[in-house]
Amino acid sequence: MSTARQSQSHYYDSQSFYDEMFEKDFSVRPHYDSVHRLFGKIKPSELNIRQHALNQRMMEEGITFTLYSSNQNEPLERTIPFDYIPRVIPRHEWDNIDRGVRQRIRALNAFTHDIYHQQHIVKDGIIPRKMIVSNTYFRPEMVGLDVPSGVYITASGIDLIRDEKGRYFVLEDNLRSPSGFSYLFKGRTLMSELFHDLYLSSSVQSIERSLNCFLSSLRSLAPSGKRDPLIVLLTPGSYNSAYYEHTFLAQQLGIHLVEGRDLVYKDHNIYLRDLRGLRKVDVIYRRIDDEFIDPLAFQPDSLLGVPGLMNAYRAGNVAIANAPGTGVADDKAVYAYVPDMIRYYLGEEPILHNVPTYILSRKEEREYVLDHLSELVVKETSLSGGYGMLIGPSATAAEIKAFAEAIKLDPERYIAQTTMKLSRAPVMMDGVMAPRHIDLRAFALMGEETHVIPGGLTRVAMTEGSLVVNSSQGGGVKDTWVLSR
User: Fold this and answer.
1) Domain residues of the chain, as ranges?
2) With a cut of 70, which residues of the chain have pLDDT below it?
3) 481 with 89: CB under 8 angstroms?
4) For 305, which DSSP code?
5) What angle do CA 12, 15, 17 make, to 5 degrees?
6) Where are the alpha helices (DSSP H) in 32-176?
7) For the segment 110-123, what is each residue's pLDDT rounded down to a tens digit?
8) Protein fold of 356-418
9) Topology (CATH) of 92-172+203-346
């Protein structure tokens, strides 16, 4: 019996979710035809062989992610779960996502500039002043500072979900130092090798030029338009959970991988120490949070950053991507105002809509949320990675009570959202297809032009019934194929 037929008899426990591959009657969506046919033909034993080969390649190449848990004495480094049934997106769907992400990033970048300059959006009453000045990620050091090329958000990851009707919504914006690029590129390499014929026959849009676009975006930030700038990737070091990605990107982009101790501040410039002496650095792609990048400007006990970096930055002698202070635009409370930003700065209607969101500083919305916690998702505004969340429908009475007390104590610290019925896609479990909830992280690169990497990274909640897709919470990934026709 084929894998596909084996799976159909028990694939759904209900039909209340949108499925990426199957219609409600289990007919296959046209853009999944070739994928479904292939996986319907391959024997489970052959699939297991390919899965083993894939896992072995990931281990050999060090494609890992570090999990931290309060139940463990030591962090656990592991290969990220990778499911080899690709997610397939038809061209017309992707074209709409591409336009929507570009629009959103333009508005968010304009907002970030405005907040650190005239604050027109505050003066005009679109966003409350308190939401900005009390924001954890607002950096007074950036006020009045003009950033290179006016680009605050060089690299971003916009998380999208689909509801039960197949409509796309933006779940959140990741604008500080979004991760997942390496899994996107390595996943494509592995899939194109292990399922070569399927990949070639599926007319998948290439992502090869996206690395060049990434490098071009960084180069465009170089002070004085320097044609051959020295670019470094600043990492916290090998103990960081995303260190594999840091090494991968530095290698693929042809830039230097450095830690804070490799850089030195002198005469309002930043220099790289190497065997040739001191070499002037033009652009720093940082994968370190704001508070750690310069102990003289932010957290004084940080050993990860570069003392004096902000002085060089203010002098216009080095560019930082993403710019310090961009976190003010991806705060989960500010997220609720992005549709208003699009209308305000661009004079356009949003192409991609937000998940319905409640601002808990508003008395009426707070009271509604407190009365309906068992139905909603609550998020702490300053946290990410699946931390600080309450998923009401699956929470215990004790968890709901604890969140209710926390909201009453400090309502501005939280937002609440409608619990969305995340779409599902098939993953292969022991040779049989099984549905799992997914989202999509769409990556945008802003420089002289804005480039959205075709497909992005599909993240998968590997536990049956779970809605948490974050790698830090045990989620996995899929390669995402955007069809070219």
Assistant:
1) 92-172+203-346, 356-418
2) 1-15, 64-77, 383-387, 472-473
3) yes
4) S
5) 100
6) 33-41, 44-60, 91-115, 120-123, 129-133
7) 999 999 999 999 99
8) Dna Ligase; domain 1 (3.30.1490)
9) Rossmann fold (3.40.50)
